[in-house]
Amino acid sequence: MDLKKVAKDTAKVLSSYLTYQALRTVMAQLSETNPPLAYWLNDFAARNSVQDGEAFLEALLHEKQDLALRLMTLRQHFAEEVTDFLPEMVRSNIEQANMEHRRGHLERITQLSISDSSSYPEQERDSSEQNWDNSDR
């Protein structure tokens, strides 16, 4: 397991997600202050995937430099504000989610075991009744 690669890939995904959040924020602001520009940015985002935030910003820099700089500034602000408490929050959320998944899985498998075992006594009783019936003959 290459933890450095996992960390690098995670950082890239997080960076792209913060780009997406910055895009959403700017589009919401523009929809109130400059609807035609908000429409243009929405159309641009539809044509250029924000899944790779760096490629998205690079393409936006070629089209509308001021919007790209605005997104980069907002993304950086989000990163500064979020990264301080993010590691503990991620650990806590994953721990909680894993516990809930395990609990749900345990409940499902124990319910299957209970329902499976409850059908066995009936089958045993039925076969023992058949044996008694056969012995009477």
UniProtKB/TrEMBL annotation:
Entry protein name: RuBisCO chaperone RbcX
Chain segments carrying region Disordered: 113-137
Record comment regarding domains: The homodimer has 2 functional domains, a central cleft essential for production of soluble RbcL in which the RbcL peptide binds, and a polar surface which plays a role in correct RbcL subunit arrangement.
Similarity comment: family membership: Belongs to the RbcX family.
Main location: other
Biased composition (Basic and acidic residues): 122-137
Keyword 4Fe-4S: no
Keyword Cytoplasm carried by entry: yes
NCBIfam families per UniProt: ChaprRbcXCyano (NF047598)
Function: An RbcL-specific chaperone. The central cleft of the RbcX homodimer (RbcX2) binds the C-terminus of an RbcL monomer, stabilizing the C-terminus and probably preventing its reassociation with chaperonin GroEL-ES. At the same time the peripheral region of RbcX2 binds a second RbcL monomer, bridging the RbcL homodimers in the correct orientation. The RbcX2(2)-bound RbcL dimers then assemble into the RbcL8 core (RbcL8-(RbcX2)8). RbcS binding triggers the release of RbcX2.
Subunit structure: Homodimer. Interacts with the exposed C-terminal peptide of RbcL via its central cleft, contacts a second RbcL monomer via its peripheral polar surface.
Annotated compartments: Carboxysome; Cytoplasm
Domain of life: Bacteria
Keyword line: Bacterial microcompartment, Carbon dioxide fixation, Carboxysome, Chaperone, Cytoplasm, Photosynthesis
InterPro entries associated with the record: Chaperonin_RbcX_sf (IPR038052), Chaperonin_RcbX (IPR003435), RbcX (IPR046381)
Gene transcribed to yield this protein: rbcX
